[in-house]
Every structure is written in C-alpha cells, then in structure tokens.
Design brief:
The structure is a single chain. The protein is of the alpha/beta class. The chain contains seven helices and six strands. The protein has a six-stranded parallel sheet with strand order 1-4-3-2-5-6, with helices on both faces. It is globular, with a radius of gyration of 16 Å. The mean pLDDT is 90.
Length: 162
C-alpha cells in the first residue's frame, strides 16, 4: 500500500533517499473521483515510466472549482485512500491550488505524466517541471472511460427507474 502524505515537507523527505539512489520519480495529478478502469490503466502506464509514482490529488474545494458544485462525488480522504491501495502508486498527496505547480516544485519529478487528452503546451505545470530538470509526457488516453461519462450512465439508469 502506498504512503499518504498530506504535508509536502514529509513528501520531500520521503523522496530524498529515492533521488539519492538515482531512482526515476514520476508524478501525475488529478481529481480521481469515482475510480474506474481508465484511471487504473493510466496510473499503471505512468508508473511504468519510472521507479516511483507520486499522485497529487485535487482537494475537494479545488475539485468543486474545476468540476462544479456537485463534485466531487467521493471526499478527498477516500479518493486518496483508494489511490494508495493501488500497487502501481507509491505516494499520494493532496493539493489545494487550482493547478499543481507548487506540489510539483516539491516533488521535482523526472517525468510528469498526463493523459493523452491533454495538450502539453497548454499545461500550466509544464514550465515548473522542465525548470526543475524534468519532462512532461502524455500517456495514451483510453476513450470511453471518464468519471463524467460514468456519472451520466449512472444517472440515466437511476432516472429510468424513477
């Protein structure tokens, strides 16, 4: 099971021996609301890029700002716990800001992974990753898997049973 670290100082300390051993630290970030197979495949692919995967999770407040007042469906502590249970994840942390630059400045990943549905030139965090000597890569996006589409399907089933 992965380690959940809410304090970024603790995360920095935990990553120090890995960095000293020359391990490749990979990071990613996201809401990860209602964990589904698309998330699992994405996280596995991200982990294969290096030796350690750090997942930064958007806080509940940040998620509401990004996704709207009905989200997240699952509270941040539970989302973090589910991610930490995945064998491909090594560390899970939380960030409150609208974008992950501050946490990535602490993690300083060699590789920052994003889904293939993102355009690297438009990622606000790309600059901080590159400035710290890392690179940003995309992991192929799995069409048909998203929390939004899953929520819509659930809503249509529940609505049909009315």
């Amino acid at each position: 099971m992965a380690t959940i670290l809410r304090g970024w100082e603790s995360l920095s300390v935990a990553l120090k021996p890995l960095r000293a051993a020359g391990k490749t630290i990979v990071s990613t970030n996201g809401v990860f609301d209602v964990l589904h197979v698309g998330h699992v495949r994405y996280l596995r692919a991200a982990r294969r890029l290096g030796d350690c995967l750090v997942v930064a999770v958007n806080s509940d407040a940040c998620t509401r700002h990004l996704k709207g007042p009905g989200r997240p469906f699952v509270p941040e502590a539970e989302r973090m716990e589910m991610l930490a249970a995945l064998a491909c994840v090594d560390f899970v942390t939380l960030f409150e800001e609208p974008t992950p630059e501050a946490v990535l400045d602490v993690v300083r990943p060699a590789i920052h992974a994003k889904g293939g549905d993102y355009h690297l030139a438009l990622l606000p965090e790309a600059e901080i990753v590159v400035r710290n000597g890392g690179r940003v890569v995309t992991v192929p996006f799995e069409d048909g898997y998203s929390t939004t589409s899953l929520a819509e399907r659930i809503g249509s089933v529940v609505g049909a049973r009315g």
